[in-house]
Amino acid sequence: MTEENIKVQIRNLYKIFGNNPKKVLPLVKDGMGKPELLDKHNHVLGIQDVSLDIPEKRIQVIMGLSGSGKSTLIRHVNRLIEPTAGEILVDGEDVMKMSDDQLRDLRRFKMSMVFQKFGLLPHRLVEENVQYGLTIQGVDESEAKKRAQHWIDRVGLSGYERHYPGQLSGGMQQRVGLARALATDAEILLMDEAFSALDPLIRFDMQSILLELQDELHKTIIFITHDLDEALRLGENIAILRDGALIQEGDAQEIVLKPADDYIADFTKDINRAKVIRLYGLATATPNGFDGPTVDGDMVLDEAMPVINEAPDRTVGVTDETGKLIGTVDLSTAIRALHA
Amino acid sequence: MTEENIKVQIRNLYKIFGNNPKKVLPLVKDGMGKPELLDKHNHVLGIQDVSLDIPEKRIQVIMGLSGSGKSTLIRHVNRLIEPTAGEILVDGEDVMKMSDDQLRDLRRFKMSMVFQKFGLLPHRLVEENVQYGLTIQGVDESEAKKRAQHWIDRVGLSGYERHYPGQLSGGMQQRVGLARALATDAEILLMDEAFSALDPLIRFDMQSILLELQDELHKTIIFITHDLDEALRLGENIAILRDGALIQEGDAQEIVLKPADDYIADFTKDINRAKVIRLYGLATATPNGFDGPTVDGDMVLDEAMPVINEAPDRTVGVTDETGKLIGTVDLSTAIRALHA
Amino acid sequence: QECGDVSIAEMDWASAELMANVDAIILEEGYGCDVSLIPGATTTTFASMSEKAEPDVAPELWINAVRDPLSAAKEEGSLVALNDGPITGLGEGWWVTPAFAEEHPELDTVEKLLERPDLFPYAEDESKGAFVGCPAGWGCQLVNANLFRAFDMEEKGWVLVDPGSAAGLDGSMAKAADRGEPWFGYYWSPTSMIGKYNMVMLPFEAEFAGRENWDGCIALAEQDCQDPQPTAWTVSEVETVVTDDFMEKGGVAADYFKARVFPGDVMNAMLVFMNENQATGEDAAFEFLMTHEDIWTQWVGEDVAAKVKDAL
Amino acid sequence: MEFLTEFPSLGRADLSAMRRWIDGNFREFTRATGEALEAFFNPLLKFLVWFEDLLQATPWPIILLVIGGLAWLGARDWKITIGSVVAFVLIGVFGMWEDTMSTLAIISVATILCIAIGIPIGILMSRSDRMQSIITPILDVMQTIPSFVYLIPVVMLLGIGKVPGLIAVCIYAIPPIVRLTNLGIRLVDADVMEAADAFGASPRQKLFGVQVPLALPNIFAGVNQTIMMALSMVVIASMIGVQGLGVPVLRAISNQYLALGLMNGLAIVALAIIFDRVSQTYGKRLQAYRTGRGND
Amino acid sequence: MEFLTEFPSLGRADLSAMRRWIDGNFREFTRATGEALEAFFNPLLKFLVWFEDLLQATPWPIILLVIGGLAWLGARDWKITIGSVVAFVLIGVFGMWEDTMSTLAIISVATILCIAIGIPIGILMSRSDRMQSIITPILDVMQTIPSFVYLIPVVMLLGIGKVPGLIAVCIYAIPPIVRLTNLGIRLVDADVMEAADAFGASPRQKLFGVQVPLALPNIFAGVNQTIMMALSMVVIASMIGVQGLGVPVLRAISNQYLALGLMNGLAIVALAIIFDRVSQTYGKRLQAYRTGRGND
Ligand SMILES: Nc1ncnc2c1ncn2[C@@H]1O[C@H](COP(=O)(O)OP(=O)(O)OP(=O)(O)O)[C@@H](O)[C@H]1O
Ligand SMILES: Nc1ncnc2c1ncn2[C@@H]1O[C@H](COP(=O)(O)OP(=O)(O)OP(=O)(O)O)[C@@H](O)[C@H]1O
Ligand SMILES: C[N+](C)(C)CC(=O)O
Ligand SMILES: [Mg+2]
Ligand SMILES: [Mg+2]
């Protein structure tokens, strides 16, 4: 992989909710944790010293327990929430130092957001909701209508253009919010549990949209999810929060195979390991070569199993990107890795 | 299994949203589908001729595409929505024919509900929200407080008793709704995507609560979810809706292995088959006996794989409940079944 | 001789306030009554008295507005007029501002002035002259409307402006007088306004054209007065009216009410005093009782006068 | 042409016969029922008189204390408490103490009465569209028919004095609280109502547990308007014999005493502002959740 | 004891000197600025006179047509349209056509003016708590200072007639729309506002795209109250020389003509109800989403 630009940079971010956050900030900096802060000082620790670099053109997944500060963190990126301390840089510019106008332009043209609670405009029709970001940008009406229609169709809401949000099911409302965010064609997408109300089929379809967007248009996407499979499918990089603090960051394989602590191990225990573990992680060196069938080391076990099963000796060779053999994997190794 | 009582019986239920549902009902009865009805008559088909018997003391899972009518269906059970046609019987009594008082008592003492959109009382503290059902029932204050506190602790919100819902994260709000529903100790629980905003750890814990409740207190639970794994863990019986109609009903294995149509096959394709497929479904008869290790046919592949892998010949015998051998399964068969 | 509770109407203009308060002090201190003052306007008070016999006394009732029902009530016996002239020197008529009178000394009668509507341009239609009449419902409203016709003022280019209320009438006059603008309209005395602004009353050239013309036409509603004749103003009438309840209770102070007459010049002086000091009726009543002993002691017996003097 | 510019109305004679007929009938009605009505309202009158006497007789330092105390109880805010006391001191210094006590007596009774009657009517009105369509025109009439018009029959029935004054004030001041209570309840979020329904809340439980608390912003806007309307009626009330700040205002008008009117008018305003601030701050305290201060 | 029951107020002489000083100053001010003010308001006067003349001169069938047309345009409801026309026919039949036209002229201008001025002020007020705390007391004064008090200076400045009448009406009728616009905007759901913010909506876009539309239920409650207040001022306006239905009402009061007062009062009520129903139904149409009728 090539050296990447950092798109969004979060530096030592703190957010404390309560009557006098500044007063308790030093305590938090001295290491007081969330439960103690709540108990003794009646302040809620939202974000605790989070630093995170989000590279351009990537999908950054954020996970964590309910209440661990994911929504709070993502809201800081477009400054819907003012931090108690810390910096957020977008394309190198400090969001906290922006004037109202700059901030508005940032939100209009550079970012768009899907809200956990949808945040639809109840008084506007579905099509008007989807056009909202475009209207704000000043895109002319017929163009906006066309682009909105495209996304309405794409999220599967054709026929409901002239319904009000209140007339839709939860998942349909969520898709309106999704279409609204996608319609603006912003570089950075902030998605707060954007698919949580969707069934597996539509969810898969929506994930595919994101992957396409990222692939073709190189969008930077910050994506909060609770669904491990979804995280694995989308997330090139996953960050895990607990009690407002960032406790591990890395790619899926790293997090599943080398959890930083028991919490994370627990967190990922239910994952379908067959879809995470890739062959190169399992390959054992074969000093004297191998002449059976070979497969790409990047393949996940889920796909590799039938191949291994059919291979002579139930053993396959594993190659790197360049096609060079790096070792072999046999069926027993594979099965043991799956059920570790 | 013994002959069971039917707790909730839904018979030929129709629900059409729009200005004049009665007028278009005959069209729907004559077979007009949802897209056509929307297109030509501007009415939304919510529920189309659904009949479903939900046995006592069971967890009935309802799944289906976003917008397929799950929430609409569950709302009919406690008559938050009036049907366009059809009957709903609870314990043999027709809900539609109940007087206001009867209906109130039904809702107070027999049922409680978790809403997809939470439906918390914004002006009441968390503890007051959790006590709400009890207050309505007239339970005295200290008792209500005690029971509420138990559930607050159980869903992991201790410390937030005196916060308002608006000060909590999405998942925390959802847990308040959950605690509120559980606190009333009703026989029937209606749960509309009750865990959708929760992370895997807490979700697992909440699922365990449900299973315990069902096990110990024999509650009847109607549970809407989009999460296949959750459905499999909880659902003794799964019903699948599409465009308002019930298209398949059965236990998990049935639905995964014998999908009624492509839609359902698609729907379940992403499932971790290792956790669904049980050995008895794969066993091939061995007329001349088998003397290797045997395992219970009820075991899912996920658990069986390491056993098979370690067994001599990578083949195990499969027994029924009584311990009688019903056949054998070898590793290749198992791997093929997983990756069909 | 028990007096008991007496309620006195305190109407909302200066002279009536003064009278009500003088009556109140004298009845309380002199006759040992338990007096309450009830604020009100002419007609609401009158209605309450005739229908509910509350309050007991209306010291200064201008009967123009309530002439018919009052005579009916008198016939029925429910109301009794104890004094048909508690103030002397009453005057009603048509007035102009002093600045105007100075500027146009030649227009010294109503008739002469009526030829010059152009001197009093009406704000809403400047081709017309404005004549400010009485607010709706006052007796003088009917009179002015009929005189307006009697003098053919419409043809002469006048508009009869309805000021709407006492406040409107006073305000329009005060504004004009303050700014030295021309103003032509109805007013009456004794009032502080007249003295304060030195308003000039214009005499009519026409003679008083007889009671029949006045009572049978000019004082009636427009539709009941087919053929009004030009005429000078009649004498104005004010009465002190009490309820028959009050009389039955003994009417202890009936003699006092019968005797009580405020000379016009004294009343005027009192009104000027009130105006200058923005004094309340109560303030003015004490002032009157202290400075005009010669007048009020004649209204009551010596013993009563002594008691009142003691209380001052 | 005449026909077109002049509306072809009933003949003058017909109209006046009709009017006389109505007036005559009403007069008879008055004579027939007046006393019964007066007897009915007598306890109210006694109470009003007693209350006014009480305020008048109580030494002013005690009144100041009570006012400060009430303001504090309602608002729990030092600024408002001190402001109220200072306002009363100024009223006293400028010689309007007595009139103010009279006005305070009748207006506080009227406001409390209006709110106590108005909120239930508003609730009733929110119950069904039918109720709303019955009550709305009545409110329209109450608010727009000129007070002077109903003063006539009220005075004919009850004479002049405190009771008819109170009635006149209430007729005018009740509608806003009724309307805004109704609106507030109707605006309550359907999702929350659905949850209450699902738990089997009775209409009463829904009302007091959910609808009224969530309608509070609107209900308190109604309280504000009712206070304003009640105080704007002080002068009208004094036209039918109610003592208080309205009397000097009327005197000021008829004599063109600008300053006198202004001072007494401002005393009325001061009462309005005190009533309003105390009630609004109380309302804010009831709505703690809107500022998110739950954790204390 | 005296000291305790009687508030130690300023001496009689001091008070009266103060009053005289105020009056004197105001009189001077009047003299200095009165004419300029009159000139300033002259175009408004001309317009009001022209409009009234227009209404008076237009043949009544045309007026009925126009009223029916406007009602239809606003409400799109046959019942309301026919009701309005019938009400006007009745008004004509009972001989109140001319007065009604005069009242209609001034009140419709006043209402439109109040709404047009009031909504922006309400919006301004919702922008910051500071603004709110500045504007609220002004509104309190406007609503509670008795009209009679400001009639004096207004008449002294502008004389009697339509312009001071219009000003008096507006002073009284503006506050409700201002207050309820402010309240409505403040009650808009924070989640929706956050979404608008997240898309970079400018304050203007938020205002017209989100806040005002979602505040409509409250804004229209304000419009309703403003209409009611404006029409309740018809009589007061006629006290300073505004022609119309208030004049016969005043006459009725002073003569205790119950029926006359009642009829004219009811004509005022009819105007109020027509104004109100048309505007409210228009408001309902703007809020289609609340009844969920999006799909037509
Ligand atoms: N109040 C309403 N008015 C009109 N249409 C409605 C209304 N409520 C639901 N619908 C329609 O009924 C259909 C079923 O909605 P429902 O909420 O039951 O879906 P769901 O299965 O719960 O979906 P989800 O998984 O997205 O929550 C949808 O097409 C929706 O548009
Ligand atoms: N407005 C607020 N006032 C007070 N506390 C708040 C507020 N918003 C969030 N919090 C607190 O901040 C913490 C983090 O909340 P946040 O919404 O970021 O969680 P989350 O990770 O998004 O959780 P979920 O997965 O449940 O959505 C929670 O403990 C919550 O109680
Ligand atoms: C002349 N006054 C105005 C005093 C009384 C009236 O005419 O009714
Ligand atoms: Mg969140
Ligand atoms: Mg749903």
List key phrases describing it.
heteropentamer, C: 312 residues, alpha+beta, 3-stranded antiparallel β-sheet, 15 helices, globular, D: 296 residues, mainly alpha, MetI-like fold, 14 helices, binds adenosine-5'-triphosphate, binds trimethyl glycine, binds magnesium ion, ABC-type quaternary ammonium compound transporting activity (chains A, B), amino-acid transport (chains A, B)
Name the average pLDDT of chain D.
Answer: 86
Number of helices of chain D: 14
The arrangement of helices and strands of chain A along the chain is EHHEEHEEHEHHHEHEHEEHHEHEEH
Derived from helix and strand composition plus strand pairing, the structural class of chain D reads mainly alpha
Radius of gyration of chain A: 23 Å
Total domain units of chain D: 1
Strand order of the largest sheet of chain A: 6-7-8-3-9-10
Mean pLDDT metric of chain A? 89
H-E string of chain D: HHHHHHHHHHHHHH
The total strand number of chain A stands at 13
Choose one word for the global shape of chain D.
Answer: globular
CATH architecture label name of the largest domain in chain A: 3-Layer(aba) Sandwich
- Report the portion of residues of chain A in β strands: 15-25%
In CATH terms, what is the fold-level topology of chain D?
A: MetI-like fold
Task: Report on the architecture of this protein.
The complex is a heteropentamer, with 2 copies of chain A (340 residues), 1 copy of chain C (312 residues) and 2 copies of chain D (296 residues). Chain A has 2 domains: 56-86 and 95-271, P-loop containing nucleotide triphosphate hydrolases (Rossmann fold, 3-Layer(aba) Sandwich); 275-338, CBS-domain (Roll), CATH 3.10.580. Helix content of chain A is 39%, strand content 23%. Chain A has helices at 21-29, 34-41, 70-77, 100-110, 126-137, 141-154, 170-183, 200-217, 228-234, 252-257, 262-268, 301-310, 331-338, and strands at 6-17, 44-55, 59-64, 85-90, 93-94, 111-114, 188-192, 220-224, 237-242, 245-250, 294-296, 315-319, 325-330. Chain A has a 6-stranded mixed β-sheet, with helices on both faces. Chain A has a 4-stranded antiparallel β-sheet with strand order 2-1-4-5, with helices on both faces. In chain A, 51% of the residues are buried. The mean pLDDT of chain A is 89. Chain C contains 15 helices and 11 strands. With 312 residues, chain C is of the alpha+beta class. Chain D is 86% helix and 0% strand. The longest helix of chain D has 46 residues, at 12-57. Chain D starts with a helix and ends in a 5-residue tail after the last helix. The relative contact order of chain D is 0.12. Chains in contact: A-B, A-D, A-E, B-D, B-E, C-D, C-E, D-E. At the D-E interface, helix 2, helix 6, helix 7, helix 8 and helix 10 of D face helix 2, helix 6, helix 7, helix 8 and helix 10 of E. The complex binds adenosine-5'-triphosphate (ATP) (2 copies), trimethyl glycine (BET) and magnesium ion (2 copies).
